[in-house]
Amino acid sequence: MGRKIHPLGFRLGVNQKHYSYWFAQKKDYPNFLEGDRKIRNFVENYIQRHVRNVSNYGGVGHIEIQRKTDLIQIDIHTGFPDLLIEEQSLGISHMKSDPGNFLGLESRNLRVTLTSVTQPYGDPKILAEHVALLLRSRVPFRRTMKKTIELVGRTSSRGIKIQIAGRLNGSEMARVEWAREGRVPLQTVKADVSYCYHPAQTIHGVLGIKIWIFRDTQ
């Protein structure tokens, strides 16, 4: 079996679910799909610009979007929602009004909620943002992978695989390095494997970060 299929799409309907819930006519489907992408990019960029203490911020795990007849609900799953609420000028009302102005929607037709992730470092996207932060701070990639595996070891995950590709430590030739701890069955459909790809912009170029986490199904 090849390894070119997306791990989440491979398990969709088994132990993975959709992050967008709506029904549209054939002519409206491209507009809704593009709108969901804009909403997710806007929310992530908005939080990165306004959160001051980024080192203690867990990032955004995933964003669920529900479209109804006259309502769009955005559910932001984040590692530390209290930080977003306590941060000055970053209340729910501001986050609600800004996407509404960006998308041309009224605030009463847009509802934004924050949901806490039980184990932030058990989410691959939050973990990938943490890895990108360390790499941008010029932390050696081997130490970064070791620290990341230690963080995941404190959660209920049964295994992790992390892969970093690019000009590692500023070397002239790009290469791929990876590390694994525990068991990560990529070809087992029933295995609850979460996956994320996240690019990290460094002074030497872009590094690609891929993280697979095998969660405990018990």
UniProtKB/TrEMBL annotation:
SUPFAM superfamilies found in the cross-reference section: Prokaryotic type KH domain (KH-domain type II) (SSF54814), Ribosomal protein S3 C-terminal domain (SSF54821)
A Pfam family it matches: Ribosomal_S3_C
One function term, GO molecular function aspect: RNA binding
Principal localisation: plastid
Keywords: Chloroplast, Plastid, Ribonucleoprotein, Ribosomal protein
UniProt superkingdom: Eukaryota
Gene3D superfamilies hit by this protein: 3.30.300.20, Ribosomal protein S3, C-terminal domain
Similarity remark: Belongs to the universal ribosomal protein uS3 family.
Descriptive protein name: Small ribosomal subunit protein uS3c
Taxonomic source organism: Hemionitis ludens
Taxonomic path: Eukaryota, Viridiplantae, Streptophyta, Embryophyta, Tracheophyta
